Amino acid sequence: MADSPDADGGACLVTGGAGFIGSHLAEALLAAGRRVVVLDDLSSGRLDNISRLQGDQRFRLVKADAAELAAVEAAAAGCRVIFHLAAVVGVRAAVETPVRAIRSNIACCEAALEAARRLGCRLVLASSSEVYGRGRGMPLREEDGASPGSPETPRWSYAAGKLACEYMAMAYFRQYGVEVSIARLFNVIGPRQSGRYGMVVPRFVRQALRGEPLTVFGDGSQRRCFCDVRDAIRALIGMAESPAAAGGIYNVGGTEEISILELAGRIKELARSRSDIALIPYAEVYGEAFEDVPRRVPDISRIGRLLGWRPEIPLDETLAATVEFERSTAGA
Ligand code: UDP
């Protein structure tokens, strides 16, 4: 393998690279012949996620807080691209540790942007469909703006932090010419996703495999479009490679819509589980002031025009792979 950054397509830094999406991304970049530095403080990322990469001499793990500029800058030295995925994620974290969720996400993003500015790296920033709030019309389009709900509702603190990151990224693009592009990820799922932060698919899969009731919040009529992590990282890598992506925001999501109640049934079937499906009032889970998103569907025509990207992996295939992964790691 060549050592010059150009010959190997450029080394990459993945902040949050021991997490669910980050570890899949690091793996794909290595498979494409890149050198990869992962920066992760392992607060929610797991060594297990990257253990198979650690034998590869083109791979390096830096255990550090992504909010520390000096650490990020040192890790990014020699890299052509920074993928910024480090974040406090999930609705549960936004509700239970809101100060951390806002402060840390903004601080980490600023460090990634500043390191990119100093080193001349291209940057892909992972944002979230949460920034659309309850949405103004479906499908959700980038040009329609973003509006998380009222600050009086705890859920939206995550979205507010991510939106601040997006504004800061655009400011770095305009003021300093940093080639940053923003991916708004819609309900990315797949093997290695943790259920600890409230995400529905890994929770249902584990519940189904343990024979516990599948906990559907509300009446289960809320709808989502899930996106396989392999499709999502194809979009992130494509964005990094496209000069035209700089200064732009791109929805990255699936198009197959499903209600959460239907999802529970589908997972039960795929896991051949005899679990019950339990409807749990939101107030019991998140307290009275909780507000869910009734429907979230991305318009993906913008990234389609940029890269020709569209999701390819059907939902059932992703769910089956997730069931298989959880079955094989049960008790691990
Ligand atoms: N959800 C659920 N049961 C769970 C976890 C989540 O019914 O055990 C619901 C949640 O209320 C939401 C949907 O599943 O309507 C997706 O939740 P997730 O946290 O995965 O992502 P979100 O779309 O809320 O960001």
Task: Give a verbal description of the structure.
This protein has helices spanning 20-31, 47-50, 69-76, 91-96, 98-119, 157-176, 200-210, 229-241, 260-270, 282-286, 301-307, 315-329; strands spanning 11-15, 36-40, 59-63, 79-84, 122-128, 180-185, 188-189, 214-217, 223-225, 227-228, 249-252, 257-259, 277-280, 295-296. It is α/β, with parallel strands linked by helices. The chain has a domain at 11-189 and 227-255 and 294-312: Rossmann fold (3-Layer(aba) Sandwich), CATH 3.40.50. A seven-stranded parallel beta sheet has the order 3-2-1-4-5-6-11, sandwiched between helices. Strand 5 (122-128), helix 6 and strand 6 (180-185) form a beta-alpha-beta unit. The longest helix has 22 residues, at 98-119. The model is unreliable at 1-7 (pLDDT under 50). Residues 91, 130, 187, 198-200, 203, 215-217, 222, 224, 260, 292-293 line the site of uridine-5'-diphosphate.
Mean pLDDT: 94
Tell me the total number of β-strands: 14
| Helix count from the secondary structure assignment | 12
Element order: H for helix, E for strand: EHEHEHEHHEHEEHEEEHEEHEHEHH
Largest sheet: 7 strands, parallel
CATH architecture of the domain at 11-189 and 227-255 and 294-312: 3-Layer(aba) Sandwich
Q: What is the CATH class name of the domain at 11-189 and 227-255 and 294-312?
A: Alpha Beta
Radius of gyration: 19 Å
- Enter the CATH topology name of the domain at 11-189 and 227-255 and 294-312: Rossmann fold
The percent range for strand residues is: 15-25%
In whole angstroms, the N-to-C terminal distance is 35 Å
Looking across the biggest beta sheet, what order are the strands in? 3-2-1-4-5-6-11
Runs with pLDDT <50, length 5+? 1-7
Coarse morphology = globular
Helix content: 40-55%
- Ligands bound, unique: uridine-5'-diphosphate
Fourth CATH level, the homologous superfamily of the domain at 11-189 and 227-255 and 294-312:
NAD(P)-binding Rossmann-like Domain
Helix/sheet category:
alpha/beta
